[in-house]
Design brief:
Layout: H1 2-23, E1 27-30, H2 38-42, E2 47-55, E3 63-69, H3 72-82, E4 86-88, E5 95-106, E6 112-116, E7 120-126
Parallel strand pairs: 5-7
Antiparallel strand pairs: 1-4, 2-3, 2-5, 6-7
């Protein structure tokens, strides 16, 4: 009886560990700091860019990086940034992911970038000075 309980306990522990390992997302280890494209900032363009990419099995760099939605002036900057990302990826199968880049202009002079994991990135830049229309 004790042997059977021990085997069941080992099996349950193995299943729990396996399930926990499968629910973890890859870890973003490094990335270039995203920037607000100067032309987009000057044109006062802001908005959301959705970027999809694939992480091959146990690979560190994303492939097939493409922007699906968003303003053309912002899309290329978001795609180029994702191409700089490096992950700790222990998955034995290829998986697809999506990241949302939120570009926002602010009335304050501060610039900042916020990463919520790798799924949500916010880039805030000060509004450009008004154009002289004289």
């Amino acid at each position: 009886m004790t042997r059977r309980l021990g085997a069941v306990a080992c099996f349950v522990a193995f299943v729990c560990i396996t399930m926990a390992a499968q629910t973890d997302e890859p870890q973003l280890l490094s990335a270039n700091i995203p920037f607000y494209p100067p032309l987009a900032r000057q044109a006062r363009v802001y908005g959301v860019v959705k970027v999809s990419f694939t992480l091959p099995a146990k690979a560190a760099e994303p492939v097939n990086v493409e922007a699906g939605a968003g303003h053309p002036l912002l899309k290329s900057a978001a795609v180029e940034n994702v191409k700089t990302w490096h992950f700790r990826n222990t998955y034995a199968v290829e998986r697809k992911y999506e990241a949302t880049f939120r570009y926002r202009l602010s009335t304050s002079e501060s610039r900042h970038v916020t990463f919520e994991g790798f799924a949500d990135v916010e880039i805030v830049s000060p509004e450009p000075p008004p154009l002289d229309t004289r």
